[in-house]
Amino acid sequence: MKYITLPPLTTKQKEIPPLIYRFRYINRLQFQKLTNEPHRPNMATRLKYLEDTKYLKNLYTKEQKTLYIPAHYCLWNIGINYLKTLGFDPKSLKKYYSDNTRKPSFINRCLFIV
């Protein structure tokens, strides 16, 4: 079995992947509400770091229609591996590998649940 070293996370960043596991898709505004973070730049830098280290996948296309809509985030490869190390069930995590190709109706339904 191939072992990988996961990039380090701060305690505030460790709160985010279990939330995505619970809801599948979340945008930045919902993250701020769920983690009680009042400052937008703090949450934006956390999400940017998690996106750069491939914990999260940003499902945002920069178009005129989506200019003022917050980006949607889902788990990505290293985020799924991180949840496996926390003890989440590997069989239930397999469905998260195809989250970036889901239909928009499914994504909107998951966002509505949050």
Portion of residues within helices: 40-55%
Gap between N and C termini, in Å? Answer: 36 Å
Beta-strand residue fraction:
5-15%
**SSE string:** HEHHEEHHH
How many extended strands? 3
Poorly predicted parts: none
Strand order of the largest sheet: 1-3-2
What's the Cα radius of gyration?
Answer: 14 Å
Q: From the helix content, strand content and strand pairing, which structural class follows?
A: mainly alpha
Number of helical regions: 6
Mean pLDDT value: 88
Main sheet overview: 3 strands, antiparallel
Global morphology: globular
How would you describe what is shown here?
With 114 residues, the chain is mainly alpha-helical. Helices cover 46% and strands 8% of the residues. A 3-stranded antiparallel sheet has the order 1-3-2. The longest helix is centred in the middle third of the chain and has 13 residues, at 40-52. It starts with 15 loop residues before the first helix and ends with a helix.
Features:
114 residues, three-stranded antiparallel sheet, mainly alpha
Which helices and strands appear, and what pairs or packs with what?
Elements: H1 16-23, E1 26-27, H2 28-35, H3 40-52, E2 56-58, E3 72-75, H4 77-85, H5 90-93, H6 104-113
Antiparallel strand pairs: 1-3, 2-3
Q: What's the short story on this structure?
A:
The chain has 114 residues and is mostly helical.
